[in-house]
Design a protein that fits this description.
single chain; alpha/beta; eight-stranded mixed sheet; globular; binds NADPH dihydro-nicotinamide-adenine-dinucleotide phosphate; binds (2S)-3,4-dihydro-2H-pyrrole-2-carboxylic acid; pyrroline-5-carboxylate reductase activity; oxidoreductase; P5CR-like_CS; Pyrroline-COOH_reductase; Pyrroline-5-carboxylate reductase
Length: 316
C-alpha cells in the first residue's frame, strides 16, 4: 500500500501537481485529456510523457490524496473536477480541517501562498500532526530555517520549486538537497517519485532557490509573453490568430526540446537557422536592437530579488 498525500492549500499549483501525479498513476484515466485539454489544432500533437507504472505496494507512491482548501466554493470545484475524471472520490477535499487531514497523511505538500504559511503551520495541533512526517513546501521565499522553526525536529522539511507545467507532466522542479541523514532514504525517493513523474526534477542547494523560482517557477509566464508576441507578429503579417499561436507554440517547444538534447547549445541552434543574408538574421538584428537579451535577463534578476522578499515577515 502506498502512502497518503495531503496537499495543504490546493490552488493552481496544488491542482497542477495532484493532477499530474494522478495522471501518472492512472494512465488510462481522462486526466490526460483534461490536463492537456482538447487539441486546439488539427495537427498531430504527439504525447511526450511516459506513464509511470502503478504498483499499489510501492512505498514511494501515493495511493490516497487529501486536498485542503480555505473556501467551500473551491472545495466544490475541486470535488467536481476530480470526480469527473476519476469517477469516484480519488481525492478527498476538505475545508477547515487541516489538522485532521495532516493527521491522516504520511506526506504533506504545502502549497498555500507564502504569506499564509505562518498561520497554517501555527494552527493548534498541526505541529503534532506533522511529527515524524515529510513536509514538502513549494512556497516562494519561505526558507527551510523558517519552516523548521514551525515544526518539531522529527519532521523532515524539504523545499521544492515546481512550475505550472507539472499539470501536463512537463514541469521543471528544483528540490533542495536533503539533510545528510536522509540523503538516500525514503524521503528522497518519495520527493523524486512525485516530481519526476510530472516532469524534470533536479536537486540544488537552497541558496539557488530564488533564482530557480524566477527562472523555472516564473519561466512559463515569461515564455508566454514571448510566445504571444511572436503570434502577434504573425497576425500582423496576415496569419489567422489560432494558426499563429500554433506556429509560435510548436516552434518554442521544438527549440526548447532541441536545446535539451545532450551536447546541444542554443547558439548553435540559432546559427543553424540563420542563413547568410537571409530573413532570420534580419529578425535577430531587430530583436537585438530592442535589447531583448538584457531585458529578459534583467527580468530574471528582478524576479529573483522579489522571490527572496516573499514569505518574509516584513513583506506584503
Ligand atoms: N503559481 C505558480 O505558477 C507557482 C506558485 N508557486 C508557489 O506555490 C504556492 C501556491 O501558489 P498558487 O497555487 O499559485 O496559489 P493559489 O492561491 O492558487 O492556491 C493557494 C491555495 O491555498 C488555499 N488556502 C489558503 N488558506 C488556506 C488555509 N488556511 N487552509 C487550507 N488551504 C488554504 C487556497 O484555498 P482557496 O482556493 O479556498 O482560497 C488555495 O487553494 C505559492 O507559495 C507560490 O509561491 C511555486 C511555483 C509556481
Ligand atoms: O509569482 C509567484 O510569486 C509564483 C512563484 C513562481 C511562480 N509564481
Amino acid at each position: 500500500m502506498g502512502y497518503t498525500l495531503c496537499v495543504l492549500g490546493c490552488g493552481t499549483m496544488g491542482i497542477a501537481i495532484t493532477s499530474g501525479v494522478l495522471a501518472s498513476l492512472h494512465p488510462q484515466s481522462l486526466l490526460h485529456g483534461l490536463n492537456s485539454g482538447q487539441p486546439k489544432w488539427e495537427s498531430h500533437t504527439p504525447g511526450t510523457s511516459t506513464p509511470t507504472p502503478v504498483a499499489d505496494d510501492d512505498p514511494r507512491l501515493p495511493s490516497r490524496f487529501i486536498a485542503c482548501v480555505q473556501r467551500e466554493e473551491s472545495a466544490r470545484r475541486l470535488r467536481e473536477k476530480f470526480r469527473a475524471v476519476l469517477g469516484g472520490d480519488a481525492v478527498q477535499v476538505t475545508v477547515g480541517a487541516n489538522v485532521s487531514a495532516v493527521q491522516l497523511s504520511d506526506v504533506v505538500l504545502l502549497c498555500c501562498k507564502p504569506q499564509g504559511a505562518s498561520s497554517i503551520l501555527n494552527e493548534s495541533g498541526i505541529k503534532e500532526a506533522l511529527a515524524g512526517k515529510l513536509l514538502i513546501s513549494i512556497l516562494t521565499g519561505v526558507t527551510i530555517a523558517q519552516l523548521s522553526a514551525w515544526v518539531f525536529p522529527s519532521t523532515t522539511v524539504v523545499r521544492a520549486m515546481p512550475n505550472v507545467a507539472c499539470r501536463i507532466r512537463e514541469g521543471m522542479t528544483v528540490v533542495s538537497t536533503l539533510p545528510s541523514s536522509d540523503s538516500e532514504g525514503l524521503s528522497k525517493q518519495i520527493v523524486l517519485q512525485i516530481f519526476s513523474s510530472i516532469g524534470r526534477c533536479r536537486f540544488l542547494e537552497e541558496r539557488h532557490f530564488d533564482a530557480s523560482t524566477a527562472l523555472s517557477g516564473s519561466g512559463p509566464a515569461f515564455a508566454c509573453i514571448f510566445l504571444e508576441a511572436m503570434a502577434d507578429g504573425g497576425v500582423m503579417m496576415g496569419l489567422p490568430r489560432a494558426e499563429a499561436l500554433e506556429l509560435a507554440s510548436q516552434s518554442l517547444q521544438g527549440a526548447a526540446r532541441m536545446a535539451l538534447q545532450p551536447g546541444a547549445h542554443p547558439a548553435q541552434i540559432k546559427d543553424s537557422v540563420t542563413t547568410p543574408g537571409g530573413c532570420t538574421i534580419a529578425g535577430l538584428l531587430a530583436l537585438e536592437d530592442g535589447r531583448v537579451r538584457s531585458t529578459i535577463a534583467r527580468a530574471i534578476q528582478v524576479a529573483t530579488e522579489r522571490a527572496s522578499e516573499l514569505g518574509q515577515p516584513t513583506t506584503k
